Amino acid sequence: MTAPVSETATQALQEDAPIEKPPRGAPWWANQRIGLLVLVVLLGVLFGILRPAFYNQQLVIFPLLRDIAMFTVVGLAQLCVLSIGHMNLAVGRMAAFSMMLTGISYDLFHLTLYSGLLVGLVAGTAIGALAGWVIARTGVNSFVVTLALDFLLLGLIPLVYTGLTDNAAFVTKPPGMRELRNYSLADVCVGNVCGSPAVPQLALFAVVAMAVVGWIYARTRLGRELLMTGSSVKAAELSGIPTARRVITAHAMSGCLAALAGFMLAVSTGSIKATIGEEFMLPSFLGPILGGTLLAGGFVSIWGTLIGTALTSVIRKGLDLLGVGLESLNIYLGLILLVALSTDRVRTVLSERQEVRRQ
Amino acid sequence: MTVVLRRTALCLAAVALVATGCTTKPADSASGGAPKDDASTGTSAGPVTLKDGSQVKLALIPGGAHPYFQPWKTVAAVDKADFKLGDATFNETGEWDQGKQNNVINSLAAQGYNAFGIFGVSPTDINSTFEDLKAKGFAVGSLASCPAGDTNAADFCLSTDVEAAAYKAAKATIEAIGGEGAIVHLTGNNVDSNTQRRIAGVKKAIAETNGKVTELPVITDIDKDLSTAQKAVADLLASKGKEIKGIVTTAYNPAVAAADGVASSKLPIKVVAIDDDAKILSGIKSGGVAATVTQNPTGQAYIGGWLLALLQSKQCTMKTPGVIVDSGSFVVTKTNVDTYDEERKAKTTALKTEFEKQLSCQ
């Protein structure tokens, strides 16, 4: 029964490209993520010198960390499918679909905040698993399947919203939603000592997501099987890994994380609307790829996703504070990213030369 | 290598934690929050003149770049000069995303801007943004669009009544086609509550014809850019051009595309546009466009800036916080194309008088 599925899955997974992993024995400064981390810190210092308001806890750091947390979860959603060499072009629309069901659960069934979140996570997992199942069953490329799913949801979601709401949004706010948007760790106290007012409570969702995804890839058999499927489907199959099931699992994880990111966006902006997730697709690739996750699969970096996301968010926030106009903002953003990646390449080349000299 | 990275990350996390700092619980948590308003409760009677705007830094923030908001850029400078404000700026980097717009607002607040005239990207979300700003003691006006629903958390909303403007546009279209035939409505983002209001306004006008005028399915989501609108108009004219007698547009790009498309196809379709782009005005003069419904962006920014300065300087408070005022919409045809701006300026003056009655001033 499973053999045909495995064969088609094998065909679907033939998206391999040469895998370039960090050379073994390279010096610590050649590590891409450390380089990015240094860059984020340097940019933070630079923007702080140019505009001391950059360190304003309430108006700059708090919303910046909230954004970084949300886009890190978006990045993790893409990372899960990148780990098997796939991509999920419907990551934003999966968030919108899941939040639509969460919105319905709040509006029509008056569920609590976290029960509604659970509905969304289940819906996200289900729609992700469906995408994975179609890919595994038909052997069609993940790019095509998720693109088709994106179009399907693009048509379906507005239909439901216009049918069920007056303003194309679910505006019911369950108790706790407003607090979750505004509360920081300063509202979490042990005795008289409270946390930092600059760290939003919403960021804890990203910490939990990073911990869980990190644990799966670093400590469990499932994670190793996913990475092995991404490295080489044939080798994975010969090792007895049920690759078709792993494809479904990776896409289900992606859908679940997309739903979590959609929830974080809905909480931070104020309502659940049809356009949730429209801005997710590019950042979902940017964070993981900048952080070292391979497009071809087989290697992921959870910390790298956080740092890559932080880099783009810090640059944007800094440019905002410097008052860079709309025309120039994206040019500077692109230029800084280009310099960052070029520096990274220079660093890798220098480290390789050092290795050659040693030998 | 991984160990090094983890250690570095943990060290940085610890540094970040120390940098952002722990706090101690205040003796009375409930005593924080927004600064108290020190304006007197006296009622204004007659013209209100701003006494001292030097401490007011005004920010006019549209949802993103759009031709409609370009007058705001000029008016921000006029506000600064006329009311002797500390500063005034115009920032259109929101890129039509509520999250990005919130970031822009927070960045401006961090730089000392304390009075905000905002066109919210998402009418269903913008009240949360207004609540945040009000809690921090800033004056906030909702300009050019009001929040969805019955509540406006800003100090006031000065906006075109979009349903009324769409109704006027549809009535002008019905009149232009002689009171019978099929018309089609071209508009913007379907999942925007303002679009839903525009659709309702057009349907209301059509319903009043008792079936003499029929409406083809509404064409939405074509205000992203001009080429999207041009393609939609070309498809529409190719497929149904012969059965359509009128086109009513309630968004900028569809209006320009419809005016161009109908002119080049030479079909006898009457187009009623929105706003006063130079192309549309020349279309009205040449007869290619039957009418347009213009709005009052200059009045919104000028009166909004004056009002925000009065509120932030604590000279005045709103008698009814969250009051909604229509900034006006004006039907322009060949007969008044050269004089409609006078009508608009008169409306702006009237708006000031109307708001003076809404204020309690020292």
Q: What does this entry look like structurally?
A:
The complex is a heterodimer of chains A (359) and B (362). Chain A is an all-alpha fold. Chain A has one domain: ABC transporter involved in vitamin B12 uptake, BtuC (Orthogonal Bundle). Chain A is built from 14 helices and four strands. Chain A has helices at residues 2-12, 32-50, 57-82, 91-107, 113-138, 142-164, 177-182, 203-219, 221-231, 233-238, 243-269, 281-290, 302-321, 326-358, and strands at residues 169-170, 189-190, 193-194, 272-273. In chain A, the strands form two sheets. A two-stranded antiparallel ribbon of chain A has the order 1-4. A two-stranded antiparallel ribbon of chain A has the order 2-3. In chain A, α5 (113-138) runs antiparallel to α6 and α5 (113-138) runs antiparallel to α11 (243-269). The radius of gyration of chain A is 21 Å and the shape is globular. The model of chain A is unreliable at 1-10 and 12-20 (pLDDT under 50). Chain B has eleven helices and 15 strands. Chain B is elongated. Helix content of chain B is 43%, strand content 17%. A six-stranded parallel sheet of chain B has the order 3-2-4-5-6-13, with helices on both faces. In chain B, strands 8-7-9-10-11-14 form a six-stranded mixed sheet, with helices on both faces. A two-stranded antiparallel ribbon of chain B has the order 12-15. By secondary structure, chain B is of the alpha/beta class. In chain B, 51% of the residues are buried. Chain B has two domains: 57-160 and 297-328 and 341-361, Rossmann fold, CATH 3.40.50.2300; 162-294, Response regulator (Rossmann fold), CATH 3.40.50.2300. The chains are: A mainly alpha (359), B alpha/beta (362). β3 of chain A pairs antiparallel with β1 of chain B, so a sheet runs across the interface.
